[in-house]
């Protein structure tokens, strides 16, 4: 019998500092310290927690959001930067894996980015949400398939998706096919209302069942004072309440501990990693329960860029060497053309 492996994890539901990036990073570092003190080896924070989720974009028309959008740019996170170094140092100091959602600034564009730091402080995963949702499309650019990657960490194989990416079955299947053991889910929280929390619960429990992995989900929290500072209109403030479902779910689709839906707190649970195999023995969605000859996924996991240099000038061949290379290419093309012609003349 294999030795039983238990991993203690923590899902953090706290409020950001809406006044500064540094203030929110300080709250992240303090929460890492607290969770590590409880024995956690994986600590998960909400979606775009640093500096804060762009709540303003949900409850104001676009023409009224310019100043707040620019303030988000000013407080966004570059990777690497002092903000990421502070989180990396905390992960290394406490020997924990940290999953953190940030607003990443890359020159003139913001991205909804998930960062995963290993227990030695190294950045194992930096992925961008592939499709921002509804109001978010005015805020963030789109990520690419390079982030649909499962990585090996001190706590096992970890994959991550943000918010409504969980409604994309192919994105989830890409992580399943890479045999994730722990899935990190991140949602904003304090948004839409109670129906959002219900939807989150259905989504993460289903992914746990379908993937045969544990799901650790973190949602954010806003205080009443913060809600009033974001949206003074009391009628519109209801859109900034509810929607919290910080939870830890087993591969069998059950809550490991009761979820946290109100207030600040840190949810802690022990994961019996043997349950992954127990679930997959019955239903392995990318193994004995798959039918790849009928249904399969094609993933373009190349990192996309607006410009690609086809060759460095220093690598270009000149003179006779270039002429010889061109002649060889032409000969190869003629040979291919002849083979194609032969195949076309072959009797049916």
The end-to-end distance, rounded to whole angstroms, is 58 Å
* Top-tier CATH class of the largest domain: Alpha Beta
Give the H and E element order: EHEHHHEEEEEHEHEHHEEHH
Uncertain segments are 332-348
CATH topology of the largest domain: Nitrilase/N-carbamoyl-D-aminoacid amidohydrolase
In total, the number of strands is: 11
Give the spatial strand order of the biggest sheet: 5-4-3-2-1-11
Mind explaining what this structure looks like?
The model is unreliable at 332-348 (pLDDT under 50). Strands 5-4-3-2-1-11 form a 6-stranded mixed beta sheet. Strands 6-7-8-9-10 form a 5-stranded mixed beta sheet, covered by helices on one side. Strand 7, helix 5 and strand 8 (182-186) form a beta-alpha-beta unit. Helix 1 (21-37) packs parallel to helix 4. The protein has 348 residues and is an alpha/beta fold. It has 2 domains: 6-282, Carbon-nitrogen hydrolase (Nitrilase/N-carbamoyl-D-aminoacid amidohydrolase); 313-345. Helices cover 34% and strands 19% of the residues. Residues 308-348 are annotated as: Disordered.
Features of the shown structure:
single chain; 348 residues; alpha/beta; Nitrilase/N-carbamoyl-D-aminoacid amidohydrolase; 2 domains; six-stranded mixed beta sheet; 10 helices; 34% helix; globular
